[in-house]
Amino acid sequence: MANLGIPSNTFQILEKYNFNFQKKFGQNFLIDTNILEGIVKGAEITKDDCVLEIGPGIGTMTQYLCENAKFVIAVEIDKNLIPILNDTLSEYSNKVIINEDVLKLDINELTNKYNDGKPIKVVANLPYYITTPIIMGLFESHVPLDSITVMVQKEVADRMKVGPGTKDYGALSLAVQFYSRPDILMIVSANCFVPRPNVDSAVIKLTLHKEMPVTVKNEALMFTLIRAAFNQRRKTMVNALTNAGINNVTKENVLSALEKMNLPATIRGEALTLAEFATLSDYLS
Predict the structure, then answer these.
(1) How would you classify the pairing of strands 120-125 and 201-208?
(2) Which helix (H) or strand (E) holds 161?
C-alpha cells in the first residue's frame, strides 16, 4: 500500500474517494513522514503494544502504527472515512476499525477484548475543540493506560505543562499533571497538514504516573473545586467556591481551611499548587 505520509499519495486517495473535509470533525491530515516517524518513536511503540488510535482519518498514522505495534484499535467518528480506511489498511491484519464516537465507547471493554486488560498506549491527532473531553475521559474512566501521545494545538500543549501563577495555568494543567508526566516531543508547523490549519501544533506525550504525585481522599471533590476555582478565575478562591453551589462548601468552611493552610483569604485559584488543592479538598470533605 502507498505510504500516505507522502503528500501525493494522500491527494490521490482523497481524489479517488472524492472526499470532502468535514469542518465539524476538525479534520486535518498529516503529510510529513518525518513527523509520523517521530510520533511512533516518541510514543515508544513496540511489537508488545496494543495501541488505541483516536481519529485515524484516512489511515496515515495507522499505517505506521500497524507496522510497529502488536495490534491497533482505530476509532473513527466519520462514517465517510470507513471505506477509505478499509482500503488504505487492507494489507494489515493486526487492526480493527471502529466507526464510533470515542467518548461513547467503553474503552475498558476494548482493552479487555484486544489486550487482555493490560495497559494500552493511546495515539491521536485531536481537533482542538475535543482535546480536553477526550483526555479527561481517558483519565477519569481509569482505563489501563501506559501513555497518551497526542497532536494538539500548540497552546493547549503549553497549557498542560505550566505551573501556578501563569495565565495558561488552569484545570487542564492540574488534571494532566495529577495523572501523568507531560513532555512536549515536537512542534509541528501548520504546513505539515492538509488542509492547512490556522495554528501550529505540538505533539505531547503524557506518561501515566506509576504512583500518584499527591494523595487525596476524594478525587472527584478535588476536581470539582479546581473547576470552580478556574471557572471564575478573576475571583478569590472563597468567592469562586461559595458561588459554585458545591455541597457543604460554605464561606466559613473555605476560610477556615485556607487559614489552616496558612494561605491568605484573598488568594485566587491560579496561585494554588496541585498539592494545595488536594489539601484543601481533604479539609472540605
Answers:
(1) unpaired
(2) helix 154-161
C-alpha–C-alpha distance, residues 208 and 210, integer Å? 6
Size (the chain), residues: 285
Domains of the chain: 7-208 (3.40.50.150), 219-284 (1.10.8.100)
- The one-letter code for the residue type at 268 is R
Query: 3-class DSSP state for residue 101?
Result: coil
**Kind and range of the H or E element at 96?**
strand 95-99
- The candidate with the shortest Cα–Cα distance to 277, out of 236, 227, 232, 209, is 227
Q: Which grid coordinates belong to 230?
A: 478556574
Task: Return the bridge partners of 122, or none.
Answer: 52, 148
Please tell me whether the peptide bond between 7 and the residue prior to it is cis, using omega within 30 degrees of 0: no
| Angle at the Cα of 204 from the Cα atoms of 200 and 205, rounded to 5 degrees | 165
List, for residues 89-106, the tens digit of each pLDDT value: 999 999 999 999 999 999
CA–CA dist 212, 175 (Å, integer): 12
> Closest by alpha carbon to 50, among 120, 106, 112?
120
Nearest to 82 by CA among 115, 56, 108, 101: 56
Tens digits of residue pLDDT in 8-26: 998 898 889 888 766 666 6
Tracing cell 485559584 back to the chain, one arrives at 269
Which of helix, strand or coil describes residue 136?
A: helix
Q: Where residue 232 falls among pLDDT bands split at 50, 70, 90? A: confident
Kind of pairing between the strands at 145-153 and 201-208: antiparallel
Question: Would the pTM of this model clear 0.70, i.e. be above it?
Answer: yes
Residue type, 206: L
